[in-house]
């Protein structure tokens, strides 16, 4: 029979496993950052290639000769970024949890009609400086991907001057909207952290929670719906600018502009309302009776 480990040996083994997990988490996080960077490079590179092909056709190049290159560039800005970004998230999320904490089976899964909380995690929360810095990075990326097409629509210059065959602005706006959604979710998370730590200092953030504990635990802790709602709000705000495509600029009539502005304002207002609701929900996290740097699985 195998010899049982002493307490010291068990502690040493746990420490070794924890160190190994942290190392693996760092590797996953680096892979996630690299893949996220590749996503941005595909989008920017595809736009540069499309612009170069447009200039080449203007200079007299045969369109049929340019179509294979345009096809590759188009693929680089459509499906490829989404697939790469998915793998990036699959690396970043568990990577950050392992780098700053642990994931493991729950000692006491919650009982119910369906099994829940079979896996739990505990991790060190990101500092305010790093959290704010990464949110600013997301804001800069979304500003580039959305701002450049928007400036072309407003001023009538590049990239709105590109032929339809080489127009890449739709791809940039879609992925820019996703980046803005993640950015808004990051800022909601930052506000959630500030409010929770304030409640902790005031002594109201305890395991007992507050009124409506079951609801807020389900909303803010189990599903993180406050962050999802904020992200969807950011997505709607970003996508609202698409109503301005073709409806602004020197040659647009006042009637076309009025219709576009109405749709733009309605969608942006709906998104802003969702962001406000997300912030209200995030402020109630302390009522869930859980710590900020923890989580549990649905199943």
* Chain oligomer state: single chain
Compressed to H and E, one letter per element, the order equals HHHEEHHHHHE
Quick one: how many beta strands? 3
Strand coverage percent? under 5%
Question: Major β-sheet, in short?
Answer: 3 strands, antiparallel
The secondary-structure class comes to mainly alpha
Any idea what the radius of gyration is? 24 Å
Mean pLDDT: 91
Strand ordering within the main sheet:
1-2-3
The best one-word shape is flat
Query: Can you give the helix content as a percent range?
Result: 55-70%
First-residue to last-residue Cα separation: 35 Å
Low-confidence regions: none
Concise structural overview:
Helices cover 68% and strands 4% of the residues. It is mainly alpha-helical and 299 residues long. The longest helix has 52 residues, at 7-58.
Q: What does it look like?
A:
This protein is mostly helical and 299 residues long. The protein has 8 helices and 3 strands. It has helices spanning 7-58, 63-77, 79-100, 128-155, 169-201, 213-222, 225-239, 254-282; strands spanning 101-105, 119-123, 294-296. It has a 3-stranded antiparallel sheet. Helix 1 (7-58) runs antiparallel to helix 2, helix 4 (128-155) runs antiparallel to helix 5 (169-201) and helix 7 runs antiparallel to helix 8 (254-282).
């Amino acid at each position: 029979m195998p010899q049982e480990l002493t307490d010291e040996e068990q502690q040493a083994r746990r420490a070794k496993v924890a160190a190994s997990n942290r190392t693996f988490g760092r590797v996953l996080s680096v892979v996630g950052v690299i893949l996220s960077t590749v996503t941005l490079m595909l989008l920017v590179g595809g736009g540069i290639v499309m612009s170069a092909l447009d200039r080449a056709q203007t200079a007299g190049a045969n369109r049929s000769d340019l179509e294979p290159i345009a096809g590759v560039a188009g693929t680089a800005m459509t499906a490829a970024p989404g697939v790469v970004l998915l793998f990036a998230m699959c690396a970043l999320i568990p990577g950050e949890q392992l780098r700053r904490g642990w994931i493991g089976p729950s000692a006491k899964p919650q009982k119910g009609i369906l099994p829940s909380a079979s896996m739990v995690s505990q991790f060190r929360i990101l500092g305010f400086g790093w959290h704010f810095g990464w949110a600013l990075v997301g804001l800069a990326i979304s500003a580039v991907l959305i701002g450049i097409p928007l400036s072309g629509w407003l001023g009538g210059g590049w990239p709105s001057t590109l032929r339809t065959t080489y127009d890449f602005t739709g791809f940039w706006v879609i992925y820019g909207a996703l980046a803005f959604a993640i950015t808004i979710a990051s800022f909601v998370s930052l506000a959630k952290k500030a409010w929770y730590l304030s409640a902790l200092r005031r002594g109201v953030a305890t395991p007992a929670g507050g009124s409506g504990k079951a609801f807020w635990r389900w909303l803010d802790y189990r599903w993180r719906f406050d962050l999802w709602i904020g992200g969807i709000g950011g997505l709607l705000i970003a996508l609202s600018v698409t109503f301005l495509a073709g409806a602004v600029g020197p040659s647009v009539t006042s009637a076309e502009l009025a219709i576009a502005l109405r749709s733009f304002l309605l969608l942006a207002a709906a998104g802003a309302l969702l962001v406000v609701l997300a912030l209200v929900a995030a402020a109630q996290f302390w009522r869930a009776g859980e710590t900020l740097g923890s989580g549990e699985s649905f199943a």
